[in-house]
Structure formats: C-alpha cells, structure tokens
UniProtKB/TrEMBL annotation, chain B:
Topology relative to the membrane: Multi-pass membrane protein
Membrane spanning stretches: 36-57, 112-131, 138-155, 167-188, 195-213, 225-252, 264-285, 305-325, 346-371, 405-423
Keyword Membrane listed: yes
Classification via InterPro entries: AA_ABC_transptr_permease_3TM, ArtM/GltK/GlnP/TcyL/YhdX-like, MetI-like, MetI-like_sf
Alphabetical list of Pfam families matching this protein: BPD_transp_1
Organism whose genome encodes this protein: Microvirga puerhi
Annotated family: Belongs to the binding-protein-dependent transport system permease family. HisMQ subfamily.
Keyword Transcription regulation: no
UniProt name for this protein: Amino acid ABC transporter permease
Subcellular location: Cell inner membrane; Cell membrane
Length: 400, 439
C-alpha cells in the first residue's frame, strides 16, 4: 500500500490575510480617523474663536486679574496680580487642602478600618455603619451639608464665640493666633533637619547591629526624640537665652470684625471635614482588606516563636498588610486630591474654582484654561503613580 | 518491669476532679461578656461608643421622626415660633415639592412619559442584573438599543426634523457601506453572505432608529431645559451606563491589543481621563464641546454633561474590564485560537462572556461611583436632584430653619437607597462567583 500523501501546495491566499498587512491597515485607519477628527475640531475651534472674538495663546496669564481671592498663601491683590498669580494661588490652595486632608483621612481611616475588625461587637458595628453611610452618599451632598447646615448657624463676627487661647469662631471662619517667626527661627529648622538625618543614621546603624549581634534598640523612641525633641530643645534654649523665635499675634475683637490673627475660611473647614470623613470611609475599607489579607497562620506562627501581641502586629502583620494596603491607599489619596475640585460647589478658592471658574469666565479662553488645569491634575496623578510603581517593585514579593 | 516502676513516677494513678462547667456559654449575657466586656479596654471602648450613640442617635431620631412635621402647606407649619414646639425635619416641604424633585419643570400633563421611562429603566436594569432572567441576550438588546431609543422619543417627544433629502443621503450611504463590505468579502475570498448580513444589519439598525426618531408619535415636544430632578439624575446615570459598557469594553480590548498604535491610543485616553477630576471633564464638555463642533450646531445644554459623563465612565469601565481580561487564563485564548476562531469570534464567544462575568462586582461598583458622581452635573448648571433641592431650599414660601437639613436628608436618603442596594447586589454577586473556590 502506498501511504505517501502528496504534500499539496497550500492554496495561495490573498496578501490581505497577512496579519502584518491587517495590523498595519487597522492602525493606519485609526491614525487617519483620529487625525481627521482632531483636524476638524481644530479648524472649527479656530473659526468659532474668531467669530466670538476670543484671543488665543497663553498671553492672558500676564494680564491683570482684577478680582480678589479669599484665601491665598502668596501675596495676591486684585490690582497688582496677574492671572498667572491667580493660577498659583489656586494650585497652592488645592495642594494645601489635599495635603492636610490626606493626613487626617489616613489617621481617621486607619482608626476606623481597625475598628471594623475589632472583637468588640459594638465598635465593629458602629465603624461599619459609618463606612456604609459615608460611602453611599455623594461627596457633593456631604460638602453642601457641612458647609451650609453645620457652618451656617455660626454667629456673626460681632458675637464671635470665644474658645480660649486666642481662638474665635464665627461665620467668617475660625480665627487663631498667627505665629510670627523671628530671623533665628532657622536654628530650629536646622535642628529639625539634623534630627531627621540623625534618626535615619541611627535607624541604619541599629538595623546593622541587630543583624550582627541580635541586640535590639529602641529605634522608635530615639527617632521621636531626635525629630521632635531636638527642635523643641533648641526653641527652649533660644527662648531662654536670646529672644523667643516664635511669637504669636492673636486676633482681637474689633467693632465689626476681628483684627489680626490668622483666619481659616469656613469653606476650607467644610471642604476639609467633608473630604476627610468621606475618604476615611474608603481608606478604612482598604485597611480592613489589607489586614484580612495577612493569613492567620502568620500571626499564629509569630506567636509560636514567642513574640508578644504588640510585636506580632508591628513586626509580622503590619509589614505584610502594608504591601496590600499601599497601592489602593495611594489611589485614595489621588481621589482625595481630585475630589478637592468639588470646592467649586462651596466656593473654596481651589484651582478649579479660581482658574476654571473665575479666570475662564473673565477671559473666555476655554481651551488654554482647561488644558492647564487638566495638565496640573494629570501631572499630579502620573507622578504619584510613577512613584508608587517604583515603590511596588521594591516591596513586591520576589518569587524565585 | 523497670518501665512500669519508672512510669509510676510521672503517670497519675488517680483521677483529677472535673473542672466546674463554665458559668455561661450561651445566652445574651454570655454573648455580651464575650463581645462587649471581655477586658478592661473593651469595656471602656463599649462605654465610650455607648456614650457617643447616646449623644448622636436620639437627636437624629427626634429630628427625623419625633419632631418632624408631616403635613402643611407653607413655612408656617415648620417654624418653631408658629407651631410652638421644636421642629425637626419638615417633611411637608418634601411632600409638597416631590413632583419638582422628581420631574423638575417637566409639564405636568406629560409626566406619564417620565413615569414610563422610569418603568422601562427598571425593567432593563432588572433584566440584566437578575442572572437567571430568561433571554438575557434579548435583555442586552433591549437595554442598549430599544430602551435608549424609546426613552429618547418618550422624553423629548421625538419627531426630529432631519431636513429634506436626508433619507436620500442615508440610502446612498447605506448602499456604499454594503458595497464596501461586499467588495471586502470579494477580495478576501470569504462568504458574501456574512458580509451582506453584517452590512444590512448595520443599515437596518441605524435606519430603524432614525426612522423612529423622525416618526411623529403625536407627543408634545418637551425641551430639555424643563427636565429636572430625579429624572435628570437617573438619565445621566443611565447614559453613563449605556455608553460606558460598550466603549469601556472596546477601550479595554484596545489596551490589551498587540497593535502598538491602537494600544497607545487606548492607554493615553484611559490614563488621561482617569487622571483628571470629573468636574474638569464636565467643565471641558460644557465650554469646549461647542467650540469643537461646526459653528452653527448648537449643542443642547443637557447633552454636554452627558458626553462628559459618558467619556469619564468609559475610561473607568475600561480598567474594570481589563482586570477581567487579564484574569482569563491564557489557555482560554489558546483554546479559542486552536479552534480556528478569529479575533472577534474569540472575544465575543469565549473570552468576553467569562471575563465580564467575573468583573460584575467591579462593574456594579463603577456604577455606584457613577451614580454618586451624577450629582456633579449640578455644578455646571444642570437641574439634577441636588440642584432642584438647592433651588427649593431658598424658596421664600418655605423659609424655615430646618428646610435645608430636610432637603439634604431627602437627597441623602435617595442616593443611599440606590447606592446601598447596588453595593449589596455586588457583594452578593461576589459571594456567588466565589462559591466555586470555597471548600
């Protein structure tokens, strides 16, 4: 029997079946379509702008702003400042509320996340109700609530609530003593820097010592002492020997308003409370998931090695939980930063309110303003995720 | 022998007395001791929490129920000075304004149309979310085609005037499309039938949609400026959902694609939208969309935030779907390819059904976020629920101290019910999907 099968030539297929040709075709098609859309949009925009007689380009940043901003960290005045300055003021205000919000939200979120895992039934349930309630109501509504419903009934400046220690509360916000720094305050800053560097050096040394000899040092205590104690000590020494480097200017009651001091806007407080409590609910869930992700065997094994409960938490559970917690925690931080743009609803002068609101309305240069604002948020997001990816690569478990 | 002697040293010869039984192991008292008062720290915590509850809960209950005013026609019913006792929530205000909160300024005789829209929406959502519902494929067709078209006609009144010669243009375009597909099939030496079916299918879907939109159903046209309240809130959420799923899937496929330009374009779009706050996207849609379109096409004020929301939701949906695609074992792709399926067949028949199934909880969570985010359209001047409350709250006819609180409480309740319901569904789904892994 002849079992040789004649090897037929494969049928000649059209070159259109070549995957490379197809890939090139689809991608060229995409490029053509996108380019066409961009081209149409650009020509339309140019025509529309010319009709509406709106200038284009970034020259408007040099123009005088002509409006006031209620909170600015850098000197700003309606007459003397430009739109560029307004942009900076808005950006700084966004960063300030985001930074403070992140700190508070982290503290509150960790506390609630741990409370949700508490063996105490009542604590766990209350934490759960908090999380469910805050997560399922829009942030905008919460901000409006905090702003209008809580801060609204505060008294007029004339009848400010005196809270002692130079703190006053009224409908214009919280007034408190403003620190005045003398020139030799730099000594304290230098002490702080030395403390931080010293703490790092000690940490490194202690780790090496432990690896070599097994002896443990009180790293936490020494760090605290160096970072906090050293500047405070410097302050006390300076205050006793020379002039006090930090003085306070308390607000005083005037006829209509409070004079001097430092004012915290009610908008700022409402935004901060809203962002903090809202984000804390999300962080709590992140923390809970992270701690639950550490298998029970880990803490049992640590216990059988003779570690005390505190040590188990500190040395075994938390380091492993952090690996799970940090990436979603970062995205919550980013969410908080992005959510701070809701300030526009309650009138806190953040980037969106100042730049996309007032400046956009005054100049009408929508494209430039939107591009700049979005660029800022994009930069923050991308830089953060870049840093996070690096961190993740460092802490990821290396498997073989 | 020696062992017996040795053993007696450490083996007990007499029985130990049994320990007394624990006093309480079940019952409320034992439970309380176990869960509330197991140690000094726990006891203090319990007491602190109890005190906090004592401080917060009674005033809230008093505000919402005990002191609340349920009936009344104007501010006099809700003012302490006229009523004579402390006044909590003024539900009379909500009851009187409920039509405004639900429909906005939608003309009263036409509100049945909005009600039908709500009903259609409920049917569509129920059909898709209930996993054992019959013919869920038809459900998808309903939700992504029939329902949007029907809602559009119902809410606006339909009867759009496309202008003369439109259908001629459409017919030419249709013939051109079918011809193009047939030509492609000819050059590719594949079946003409498939090409014809696809071509005619696309033409039929678009044609039927347009015909219905143009058809005069005798409905009174209602301009979008009159829409408001819960109608707009649900509408924005629905548009976000209806658009974000298909576009999200396409973007996710693009991001996982092997074609570099396609992947790059998807990545840029997704990361760009996810990196900026929704409010900036909305303001962008509001101010820049009219600029980018030809000069005389006025874009409806309601359409602008809808476009913004759809773009925003698509990017987030894409990331969720990508998670599902990545979770698919490689064997599924290889198995599909070894069966000789091409890319669309592989994705539609093998990968996506499984991938979408595992990310249902993620999809629902995205919807929760989207639903909450719809409240932001009020910032760009759209009359959603929040805006209607903001507008009613300052109505001089209802000027009373607790009106703001009442309005916000109502809105909070509304959002909470929807979001909480969705999150319960998502948790239940997660449990169901994890059932296979549980032993």
């Amino acid at each position: 029997m002849n079992s040789v099968v004649s090897q037929a030539e494969p049928p000649k297929k059209s070159f259109l079946y070549d995957p490379k040709v197809r890939a090139a075709f689809y991608q060229i098609l995409l490029v053509v379509v996108v380019t066409y859309l961009f081209y149409k949009a650009a020509t339309n925009a140019i025509e529309n702008l010319q009709r509406a007689k709106i200038a284009s380009g970034f020259g408007f940043l040099e123009n005088t702003a002509g409006f006031d901003i209620s909170q600015s960290l850098i000197p700003f005045s309606a007459a003397g400042s430009t739109y560029g300055d307004a942009f900076l003021v808005g950006l700084l205000n966004t960063l300030v509320v985001a930074a403070i919000g992140i700190v508070f939200a982290t503290i509150l979120g960790f506390a609630i996340g741990i409370a949700r895992l508490s063996t105490n039934w009542m604590v766990a349930k209350v934490a759960m109700v908090y999380v469910e309630l805050l997560r399922n109501i829009p942030l905008l509504l919460q901000l409006l609530f905090w702003y209008i419903a809580v801060l609204g009934p505060l008294p007029q400046p004339r009848n400010s609530l005196e809270m002692g220690g130079g703190f006053f509360l009224n409908s214009r916000g919280l007034f408190m003593p403003r620190p005045i720094f003398a020139s030799d305050v730099s000594a304290i800053l230098i002490a702080l820097a030395i403390g931080v560097v010293g703490a790092f050096v000690f940490r490194h040394w202690a780790k090496k010592q432990q690896a070599a000899t097994g002896r443990q040092y009180r790293v936490g205590l020494v760090t605290l002492g160096l970072v906090l104690g050293l500047p405070i000590l410097t302050w006390i020494v300076l205050a006793l020997t020379a002039t006090n480097p930090i003085g306070f200017d308390p607000p005083r009651k005037g006829t209509f308003n409070l004079q001097g001091g430092m004012q915290i806007l009610p908008e700022f407080v409402a935004l901060l409370i809203g962002l903090t409590t809202y984000t804390a609910a999300f962080i709590a869930e992140v923390v809970r998931a992270g701690i639950l992700a550490v298998s029970k065997g880990q803490s049992e094994a640590a216990g059988s090695l003779g570690l005390k409960p505190g040590q188990i938490l500190r040395l075994v559970v938390v380091p492993q939980a952090m690996r799970v917690i940090v990436p979603p925690l970062t995205s919550q931080y980013l969410n908080l930063t992005k959510n701070s743009s809701l300030a526009v609803a309650i009138g806190y002068p953040d980037l969106v309110q100042v730049f996309m609101g007032t400046v956009l309305n005054q100049t009408g240069q929508a494209i430039e303003v939107v591009v700049i604002t979005m660029g800022v948020y994009l930069t923050i997001s991308l830089v953060t995720s870049l840093v996070m990816n690096t961190y993740n690569r460092r802490v990821a478990i290396v498997e073989r | 022998m020696t062992t017996a002697v040795d053993m007696s040293h450490y083996v007990r010869s007499d029985k130990i007395e049994a320990l007394p039984p624990p006093r309480l192991t079940r019952g409320p008292l034992a439970w309380m001791r176990e869960n509330l008062f197991s140690g000094p720290v726990n006891t203090i915590l319990t007491l602190v929490v109890l005190y906090l509850l004592y401080v917060t809960i009674p005033p809230v209950i008093r505000f919402l129920f005990t002191d609340a005013v349920w009936t009344g026609t104007d501010r006099a019913a809700c003012r302490e000075d006229t009523v004579g006792h402390p006044v909590g929530a003024c539900w009379a205000f909500v009851i009187e304004k409920i039509n405004f909160f639900t429909y906005g300024s939608y003309p009263a005789p036409e509100r049945w149309r909005v009600n039908i829209f709500f009903l259609l929406l409920a049917i569509g959502v129920g059909w898709l979310l209930w996993l054992r519902a019959p013919r869920r494929d038809l459900g998808a067709v309903y939700f992504f085609w029939v329902f949007p078209v029907a809602s559009y006609i119902l809410l606006t009144g339909g009867n759009v005037d496309f202008g003369g010669g439109f259908w001629l243009t459409f017919a030419i375009a249709a013939v051109a499309l079918v011809g193009l597909l047939v030509a492609a099939a000819y050059f590719l030496q594949t079946s003409m039938r498939t090409a014809l079916i696809i071509g005619l299918g696309i033409v039929a879907v678009i044609g039927i949609t347009l015909a219905f939109i143009e058809w005069d159903f005798g409905l009174l046209p209602v301009p979008t400026a009159l829409w408001g309240g819960i109608l707009v809130t649900l509408l924005v959420a629905t548009v976000g959902i209806v658009f974000s799923l298909p576009f999200g899937i396409l973007l996710a496929l693009g991001r996982r694609s092997k074609l570099p330009i396609l992947r790059l374009a998807s990545v840029i779009f997704i990361e760009f939208v996810r990196g900026v706050p929704l409010i900036t996207v909305l303001i962008m849609a509001n101010t820049m969309l009219p600029l980018f379109l030809p000069p005389d096409t006025g874009v409806d004020r309601l359409v602008r935030p809808l476009v913004g929301t759809a773009i925003f939701a698509s990017a987030y949906m894409a990331e969720v779907v990508r998670g599902g695609l990545q979770a698919m074992p490689k064997g599924q792709y290889e198995g599909a390819m070894s069966l000789g399926l091409n890319y669309p067949q592989m994705m539609i028949l093998i990968i996506l059904p499984q991938a979408l199934r595992i990310v249902i909880p993620g999809i629902v969570n995205t919807f929760i976020g989207l639903f909450k985010d719809t409240s932001l359209v009020s910032v760009v001047g759209i009359f959603d629920l929040i805006k209607t409350i903001e507008a009613s709250r300052i109505d001089p006819n209802w000027a009373a101290p607790t009106i703001s609180y009442t309005g916000y409480a109502f809105a909070a309740l509304f959002y909470f019910i929807f979001c909480f319901g969705m999150s319960r569904y998502s948790i239940g789904m997660e449990r169901r999907l994890a059932a296979g892994q549980k032993r």
